């Protein structure tokens, strides 16, 4: 029986979320609900795979096996109904590694790359650190959540070389619909704009259906570089495993060659067996996890509406991240953070880094007792 409410202890886990409290918040006594991993144990089948690998007692150079990419292909077919081409998929240690390298390969210095705000901070970092120019298409706040402004989208994307799509969206929690995705595809095809589609959260759908933009026809597929990973799905971020699906086999081979030039030849000793096991045997666990996350979200949104009504929050359609609107308090991010840390004893990710000042992101992927504690702390800070 999986128990997502079991007491957990990450004190010896070298966890960025827990061990990083002093460095990033100046105090160690905070409840950390910031970094996007889960305070939930990975599936037993994954731990078994890791133990079996450890039992081999030899951890020399590795070589990618066919079962690794094969497990992703089967998983995506089963979960999302999309057929991926085995030959066009490459391993990459992390999605951020892929973003960095894809930007280098697909664009030249000074080129414009469009993203949508609020945004996952690494999009901006990777574009700017490569000397490319960030262009922002702001998402628009509507009663039911963020929507895209397609007039501004077209205006800006036509002068961009690449558009980075985040689907599902971190931090807004949107699952872009078939209509929205088709519109993006239509505009990008019209102007020949390449799309890097970050779909790392695509297995964490709580409401709706994930539509991978590359699945919308060959014309758009020719422009799309899809980033996928089992690490968010099964809470394995520390093992470093992800994938990129390319439009052509040649582009995949070029990417693999570029990665090998910086010494990233093959998946590490542990990640292949763990990911294969997760994809092949982890579906039942995932379904239970999604139920747990839905329950936590329901509980948190209800608590906030009743106890801290000045905070506005919507249920995300995907991810385990709540995007809290704190603008009613009229404070800048520094002051909001101070209130959270000093008055609440709570560590959240502040909105400024996402180009969403006045907001904070709260990670609810934890046992219920921890969520209750976190919400009480939030109330102490802002109630
Ligand atoms: C949208 C998005 N992309 C990428 C990442 C990071 O992925 P990785 O650890 O594989 O670099 C995250 C992590 O939170 C994310 O939210």
Automatic annotation (TrEMBL):
Pfam families, per database record: Aminotran_1_2
Annotated InterPro entries: Aminotransferase_I/II_large (IPR004839), C-S_lyase_PatB-like (IPR027619), Class-II_PLP-Dep_Aminotrans (IPR051798), PyrdxlP-dep_Trfase (IPR015424), PyrdxlP-dep_Trfase_major (IPR015421), PyrdxlP-dep_Trfase_small (IPR015422)
GO MF term (any one): lyase activity
Coiled coil ranges: none
Keywords noted in UniProt: Lyase, Pyridoxal phosphate
EC class: lyase
Cofactor(s) essential for the protein: pyridoxal 5'-phosphate
UniProt-listed Enzyme Commission number(s): 4.4.1.13
Residue span, Aminotransferase class I/classII large domain: 42-378
NCBIfam families named in the record: C_S_lyase_PatB
Sequence similarity: Belongs to the class-II pyridoxal-phosphate-dependent aminotransferase family. MalY/PatB cystathionine beta-lyase subfamily.
UniProt name for this protein: cysteine-S-conjugate beta-lyase
